[in-house]
Specification:
By secondary structure, the chain is mainly beta. It contains six helices and 61 strands. The strands form 20 sheets. A five-stranded mixed sheet has the order 3-4-10-9-6. A hairpin with a 5-residue loop joins strand 42 and strand 43. The longest helix is centred in the C-terminal third of the chain and has 60 residues. One of its GO terms (molecular function) is calcium ion binding. Keywords: Calcium, Cell adhesion, Cell membrane, Glycoprotein, Membrane, Repeat, Signal, Transmembrane, Transmembrane helix. This is Cadherin domain-containing protein.
Length: 836
């Protein structure tokens, strides 16, 4: 129990929790607070009372769902408490209805669940009793003796409602209290002392209504009574209480009931007028009474959902001021005029196809403002969907999964929820929920065939497309993205990846190498299709590649054997008959099919009229009788062709000896053999002569190039010395016969390139070149320098050729001059006469 002190925390908060399990966790909590507490006041710790952690409220996006309470109550997720959002006035919220309560639900997601909460509003004494009019005037005959009834109204209920009336002064009138069926009190003002118009023509009374609240509050009304001349008889209603029934939504002008009163007087004192004296519930705005005949008619809209009954207080008055009162109780009958209202409390728009059974998808609240059978509602959903509606509490439904979901069968469901009441005629409402089914990687890729066969012609180009395998995946998006992988295997001990490759995206199979039908006729391998899910699913298929033959091999003659040295001849006696089998040409073709079908034709023959060749079998037979005039030596050229496109062929020479005795054959074919040997020797010598001439030409060309390079290199050495150059003779060598030359050549040069992509010439020498240079210094000494390093020591040092002056050295018997190139015409070289 919680106590609320002051105006903000008066009353008591009563907590009770009941747990129901149906699709989602259900709970109910009730609090009691007083009205008029300040904004932000504490109502209750909803998290603690429901047994939830505050982080569950935050993660579940807890919120308040209500049709009419969210303006007054708010939820603090961080603290897990309910607070007052706006000031609550019980009289505005519930009018006279008791008990007065706010009903709402706490909705949580992930998983979806809700809890019902009731906050009861208790009344505080914040309204004083009020009369509809602050002043009322009566005309009463001086001879009146019956009481007149007045009703004071208080908007508070329960203990704060009207408790007592006071009338001052009390000289002529007294008050008589009477409890009504609706809990209000009627007060009758009873005449105690006779009135005398001659003494007091007008009397003013103050009627005070006091409630039972704390502090006590009151309201007053001034009653002004005019005393009329004597009227002996007051009007009298036929019955003190009338009852009537009217249907809601009845049109204006509908007759509700007829009240009647009579007066025993005659004349103006006996004429009765009727009026309504109600001061509550806007009765005068809904009903009116005919002043003359007492007909009570509708003048406003009547709605069962706003008020189920009305109490109309009627007054009958005569001209003499005498009155009588009665009460008309009008019961409003409900009409089925409200459709069920469907409100989506919480819903999911996407659900995974692997969701478990009884997973809550949507929570629905149904309300029908009608009553009785008109307010009884039943809901159902469209058929042939894997969902069902389950009711948790009154007017609350949960849409849950009823069977397994499969996105590949249906990726979206449009679920129509229809709610109908039991009224006559029945009214219904419907709402359509669209639910997307999210994909789960539950389908492996499937190839279009259980196995594949592909054909490729031999001698193909590497990289040629052979075939395309295709697999489909019933999943969606990334889960349906298929990649193709060549599984590891071997063909004749060689990895299959060296034969074919597979495009990962398209599944196109490419040849990695050129195939030869004569080496491999077919092979097979496995291709795996794998999707992009997590974890990935896969399947594989066997692909068989058949290599088709191409006519790339000519026929090979097996017989007769063609030898280079010896001569083989078939002997045909002159006495043979026509069709005699001389020999048979035997050939094979390593190709297959029609590429290996061979045909034999006689291309050349010494005597074409003597022999023929079988087209299919290659048999050489005589086609006429052999005569003495036929030459002994017969030379046949047979061509063997295959049936390919284009066809390939081979030729064979068959020597046939037409003779009866072997010596005759030998003498004829010896000359033939010698002629053949002579021709073979002639050919050999011609080839040998051509080779010798070519070698000599190349040798001369190399020598000429070497001499030119040597001279150029010598000039470069002399140019860089910048000194007079005289020949230096190494030890063991001397000048003989005055020629100035060495006995042996010790200098040579080699020209080569360093890189096939460059053309810089590199020069090298087998040894060092020694030169004596005369130094023109005063000392007159001679220096022996090394002109260049051996090119073998530094083979990669490039040689730069610049357009610089080159020094030429001329050797005579004993004289040497050095001059630069490009000297002008007529320049002095030396005094040769003096020097000699």
């Amino acid at each position: 129990m919680r106590k609320f002190t002051d105006r903000t925390m008066k009353g008591q908060a009563l907590l009770f929790i009941s747990i129901l399990l149906l699709g989602s966790v259900m709970g109910q909590v009730s609090y009691t607070i007083p009205e008029e507490i300040t904004k932000g006041s504490f109502i209750g710790n909803i998290a603690q009372d429901l047994g939830l952690e505050t982080k569950r409220l935050t993660s579940g996006k807890a919120r308040i769902y209500s049709r009419d309470s969210d303006d007054y109550i708010e939820l603090n997720r961080e603290r897990g408490v309910l607070l007052v959002k706006e000031r609550i006035d019980r009289e505005v919220l519930c009018r006279q209805t008791t008990p007065c309560a706010l009903h709402f639900q706490i909705i949580l997601e992930n998983p979806m669940e809700f809890y019902s909460v009731t906050v009861q509003i208790t009344d505080i004494n914040d309204n004083k009793p009020t009369f509809e009019e602050g002043e009322i005037k009566f005309k009463i005959s001086e001879s009146a003796f019956i009481g007149t009834t007045f009703v004071a109204v208080d908007l508070d209920v329960g203990m704060n409602n009207l408790k007592n009336y006071e009338l001052k002064p009390t000289d002529n009138f007294a008050l008589k209290l009477r409890n009504n069926a609706d809990g209000n009190r009627n007060v009758e003002m009873v005449l105690q002392q006779p009135l005398d118009r001659e003494k007091q023509e007008q009397i003013s009374l103050v009627l005070t209504a006091v409630d039972g609240g704390e502090p006590q509050m009151s309201g007053t009304m001034l009653i002004v009574i005019t005393v009329l001349d004597a009227n002996d008889n007051a009007p009298v209603f036929t019955q003190p209480t009338y009852k009537a029934t009217v249907h809601e939504n009845s049109p204006k002008g509908t007759l509700v009931d007829i009240v009647s009163a009579s007066d025993a007087d005659h004349g103006s004192n006996g004429k009765i007028t009727y009026s309504i004296t109600n001061t509550l519930d806007n009765v005068r705005k809904v009903f009116e009474v005919n002043e003359e005949n007492g007909d009570v008619n509708l003048i406003g809209n009547i709605d069962f959902e706003d008020s189920r009954n009305y109490q109309i207080h009627l007054l009958a008055s005569d001209k003499g001021g005498l009155t009588d009162s009665c009460k008309l109780i009008v019961d409003v009958q409900d009409v089925n005029d409200n459709k069920p209202e469907i409100d989506i409390m919480s819903k999911s728009t996407v659900i995974s196809e692997d969701a478990k059974l009884n997973t809550v998808v949507t929570m629905i609240n149904i309300e029908d403002k009608d009553s009785g059978e008109n307010g009884n509602v039943k809901c159902f959903i469209s058929e042939n969907v894997p969902f069902t509606l389950k009711t948790s509490t009154n007017n609350f439904y949960s849409l849950v999964t009823d069977s397994d979901l499969d996105r590949e069968i249906s990726s979206q469901y449009n679920i129509t929820v229809t709610c109908s009441d039991e009224g006559v005629p029945s009214l219904s409402s419907s709402v359509t929920l669209t639910l997307q089914i999210s994909d789960v990687n539950d389908n492996a890729p499937v190839f279009e065939r259980s196995s594949y066969e592909a054909y490729i012609v031999e001698n193909n180009t590497p990289g040629l497309s052979i075939f395309t395998v295709k697999a489909r995946d019933d999943d969606w998006n990334q889960n349906a993205r298929v990649s193709y992988i060549l599984e590891d295997s071997s063909v004749n001990g060689v990895p299959v990846s060296s034969y074919v490759s597979v495009s990962a995206d398209s599944g196109v199979i490419h040849a990695v190498r050129s195939f030869d039908y004569e080496q491999i006729k077919d092979f097979h391998f496995r291709v795996k299709a794998q999707d992009g899910g997590s974890p990935p699913l896969s399947s594989n298929v066997i692909v068989k590649v058949l290599i088709q033959d191409q006519n790339d091999n000519p026929p090979q003659v097996l017989y007769p054997v063609q030898t280079g040295g010896s001569l083989v001849a078939e002997m045909v006696p002159r006495s043979v008959d026509v069709g005699y089998l001389v020999t048979k040409v035997v050939a094979v073709d390593v190709d297959s099919g029609q590429n290996a079908w061979l045909s034999y034709k006689l291309q050349k023959a010494t005597d074409r009229a003597l022999f023929e060749v079988g087209l299919q079998n290659g048999e050489i037979r005589t086609i006429r009788q052999v005569t003495d005039k036929d030459a002994v030596k017969q030379r046949l050229t047979v061509i063997v062709e295959d049936n390919g496109q284009p066809s390939r062929s081979a030729t064979v020479i068959v020597n046939v000896a037409v003779a009866d005795t072997f010596p005759e054959v030998l003498s004829e074919f010896t000359d033939f053999t010698q002629d053949k040997e002579y021709n073979d020797n002639l050919t050999f010598y011609l080839v040998l002569a051509l080779a010798v001439v070519s070698f000599l030409f190349i040798t001369c060309l190399v020598v000429i190039i070497s001499v030119k390079i040597y001279r150029w290199r010598q000039s470069r050495v002399m140019y860089h010395s910048n000194l007079p150059v005289i020949p230096y003779y190494p030890p063991r060598y001397s000048d003989t016969l005055g020629t100035g030359t060495l006995q042996h050549v010790y200098n040579y040069e080699v020209c080569r390139t360093t890189d096939s992509r460059k053309s810089d010439c590199k020069f090298g020498g087998a040894g060092s070149q020694n030169v004596l240079i005369m130094d023109p210094s005063p000392t007159g000494t001679m220096q022996r320098i090394q002109s260049e390093k051996s090119i073998l020591d530094k083979p990669d040092s490039p040689l730069e050729v610049r357009p610089s002056p080159i020094t030429y050295a001329f050797w005579s018997k004993k004289n040497l001059y050095s001059i630069p190139e490009e000297m002008s015409k007529g320049s002095l070289i030396g005094n040769i006469a003096q020097d000699l």
